[in-house]
Amino acid sequence: MGNPEEELDAKGIPLKSPYPEKPSVPVLYGVMTLIVGAIGLAIAYVTSYLTEAKQSAADAKISVLSEYDLGWLYLGVFVVKFLQLPIGITLGAARKASKVNVPDQHVYKVMGAEGSKLGYVLMETEGIHGEFNRAQRALQNYNEQ
């Protein structure tokens, strides 16, 4: 795992989550989404409208978007990005509860009969680690579409 000084339980899971106790995961992710979005909008505005020459070029590009009625395309991209937030919140809450931090993406356990030499290593399906694995797979399935 990440930090060598981190205290671990008997199975190697950290005893403490790297997420802060407050704010809650939905608030944390929502605020960070707003902050990053505001920074992106500010950069886009400054780079497009800082000088009069850039302003007229940006206005010409916007008129092309308007002429071809492409505003809906940009609105659609924004909506898709915004609707990814609940998936991230679900995964963040599961990651906080399971105490499994980045870069670890799944929790595995050895399956097989007690005392057998070899067993399969499969993803944990029970408890908070199973919930975390399902949330992580949901995000990956979404990204693979």
UniProtKB/TrEMBL annotation:
Membrane-crossing residue ranges in chain numbering: 27-51, 72-94
Keyword terms, alphabetized: Membrane, Transmembrane, Transmembrane helix
UniProt-listed InterPro entries: MAPEG-like_dom_sf
Protein known as: Uncharacterized protein
Species: Pseudictyota dubia
